[in-house]
């Protein structure tokens, strides 16, 4: 039997009802962690939780909006009630979009910013209430290649750049502790959101600045959600015990 790399750990994963978040939750449960999944919709969330439990894993779902401080506190209260602790936080929930700056109104801008940057800040703030007293914990922010190469929507790319900066800022705050903060920056990954984006079904259509050609993108096989989940497993486990403040890009060499 393979050794469980996250045995007896408790992980909170936002945006876990489909795509990368679902894959992360399933992998972490397989590796022995008890997982607390969040999403805004109950039906898909419950289905993922039941799927994990059916395979012998420990999971609970919490319907929550990352833009709500009250919901954030509810997630961590549920984790403590159900599993007694929190060891790992993955900030995966986010909004992808393709609106250029001249198409971006204030309401849209603030909504994307509150989700993609405000959400992780709320969750990190709440997680540290648990991590700091015990001097242990792992924070993983799911960023994007857009944090360095901003070819998608103006607000989306700005939030991912800010999330990379937040990752380093939090790591610096925690440098003299056993709490690690890092980020994974996915490239093109085959998820429902990515498929919708390519079809022009996300807000702003499929107008990615310089998406093809030498500017930012080198055509090749897209990543699988498991590729991103494996990167998170590395950071969450003992394998990444001395990795702090890093943004690990997982893009199959497409965005070098």
Please characterize this protein's 3D structure:
- The chain is α/β, with parallel strands linked by helices.
- Helices cover 42% and strands 15% of the residues.
- The protein has seven helices and seven strands; from the N terminus they run E-H-E-H-E-H-E-H-E-H-E-H-H-E.
- The chain has helices spanning 19-30, 42-54, 69-83, 106-134, 154-173, 192-198, 225-236; strands spanning 10-13, 34-39, 58-63, 88-91, 137-142, 179-186, 247-250.
- It has a seven-stranded parallel beta sheet, sandwiched between helices.
- Helix 3 runs parallel beside helix 4 and helix 4 packs parallel to helix 5 (154-173).
- It is globular, with a radius of gyration of 17 Å.
- The termini are far apart.
Notable traits:
single chain, alpha/beta, seven-stranded parallel sheet, 7 strands, 42% helix, globular
Question: What's this entry about, in short?
Answer:
The protein has 256 residues and is α/β, with parallel strands linked by helices. The chain is built from 7 helices and 7 strands; from the N terminus they run E-H-E-H-E-H-E-H-E-H-E-H-H-E.
